[in-house]
Design goal:
Order of helices and strands: HH
Number of helices: 2
Strand content: under 5%
Distance between the termini: 39 Å
Helix content: 55-70%
Number of strands: 0
Structural class: mainly alpha
């Protein structure tokens, strides 16, 4: 068994981390399940659904990544004893 310093604690699964994980996993699931969007209709300004669906995930993924980052940072601040903004 490796020696751990006295002040180190194992990481705990918290609701914030679960939500952050879901935020990061959602785009992977949505884009890897190709059969759900492998079609031409509905078109958006002449672009087939297959293409605009994937393009629409770019800003959604950025927003979900930001939410995950914010949740994890806030939790780290709380664990260190800092104030939450």
């Amino acid at each position: 068994m490796p020696h751990q310093p006295a002040d180190s604690r194992p990481q705990v699964v918290t609701p914030s981390r679960v939500i952050a994980g879901l935020c990061l996993a959602t785009p992977f699931v949505a884009l890897l399940w190709v059969n759900s969007y492998a079609r031409v209709t509905p078109r958006f300004i002449g672009i087939p659904f297959f293409y605009w669906y994937q393009i629409a995930w770019v800003p959604v993924t950025a927003a979900l990544t930001f939410v995950a980052y914010t949740l994890v940072r806030r939790e780290e601040r709380i664990r260190r004893g800092g104030a939450v903004k």
